[in-house]
Design goal:
Length: 128
């Protein structure tokens, strides 16, 4: 059971290197795994898939809103000929690296060493 969950979280890790890959790659793995797996295994994968996709969509929305606000501040400070500090620009990049690369890697290693699967991603808003 843990091997299919490990592969699901590795698909999130692999998808982090493609646009919207952290949402699309787990769906692709799930569609391949549900044809070969038992019913209880597919139900567990579906639960984890929903958690992953909900969290990743929220992460994309946060980064999008952050970037809109950032570029609004950039443009408005340019028109007023004031200097805008761009140091906060790296906040969404750091968050993306943590939540799309490092965290799925941590979960995959955690599951690979034999720890039981639990809910790893929590969402404020449930899309699925």
């Amino acid at each position: 059971m843990n091997t299919s969950l490990v592969k699901l979280y590795v698909s999130v890790l692999i998808g982090a290197f493609f646009p919207l890959g952290t949402v699309i790659a787990p769906f692709l793995y799930y569609s391949l795994a549900k044809t070969n797996g038992a019913d209880e295994q597919v139900a567990e994968l579906r639960k984890h898939l929903k958690d992953i996709v909900n969290f990743q969509i929220q992460l994309y929305l946060f980064v999008f809103i952050y970037m809109v606000v950032f570029w609004y501040l950039q443009i408005s400070s340019y028109n007023e000929r004031q200097h805008f500090d761009a140091g906060w620009m790296y906040v969404p990049v750091v968050l993306y690296v943590i939540f799309a690369i490092l965290y799925p890697l941590f979960i995959a290693v955690h599951l690979k060493i034999g720890k039981p699967g639990k809910r790893y991603y929590y969402s404020l808003v449930r899309f699925f």
